[in-house]
Specification:
The chain is mainly α. Helix content is about 55%, strand content about 0%. Strand 1 and strand 2 (about 75) form a beta hairpin. Helix 3 (about 80-90) packs antiparallel against helix 4 and helix 3 crosses helix 5.
């Protein structure tokens, strides 16, 4: 429903300036699904299907970068921990922009005092992304940050899972 050159519009930020816009998230999950589908097709001997999935993945990535990525600033869509993490985890942004995108992610963590505001789905990818850049120190800082939201808060309050809402 968008005309050529028109950008998707981010919804209003949620609690804690959380910018996990569903429209962007859906496109990132589509990339993940296409990547996994291509891999499964390849492993099961369906090479033509794998090729078709990879082509679709490349097309979606190209469209996302064109519409949602600012290469000058390193910000994808509205920014925020979740979006910056997922575009890195799914290798959506061009290779030459990865460090700049990662720097934005580090800034997002810093302004939230290293509290993760990525939700349950993005948390694992956040740790994987931090570690893939060799920033185990930041991953540890996020894991051990006191207060809400965070794993330490969950553990000290007898919770067995992270809460999905950012209101505690």
């Amino acid at each position: 429903d968008h005309r050529e050159g028109e950008h998707l519009h981010a919804e209003e930020p949620g609690p804690e300036d959380n910018r996990q816009n569903p429209a962007y998230a859906a496109m990132l999950f589509l990339c993940q699904t296409l990547r996994l589908s291509a891999r499964v097709a390849e492993l099961t001997g369906h090479s033509s299907d794998a090729q078709r999935y990879r082509k679709a993945l490349d097309d979606v990535k190209t469209a996302l970068v064109k519409r949602c990525f600012n290469a000058e600033t390193g910000v994808f869509a509205g920014g925020g921990q979740f979006l910056q993490t997922y575009v890195l985890a799914e290798h959506i942004v061009p290779e030459e922009s990865r460090q700049k995108v990662f720097n934005v992610l580090l800034h997002e963590l810093e302004i939230h005092d290293y509290h993760p505001v990525v939700g349950v789905i993005g948390l694992r990818r956040l740790y994987e992304t931090l570690c893939s850049f060799g920033r185990y120190d930041i991953a540890w800082k996020v894991f051990t940050v006191k207060g809400f939201p965070g794993q330490l808060h969950m553990l000290t309050n007898d919770r067995t899972t992270l809460t999905e809402g950012l209101d505690g």
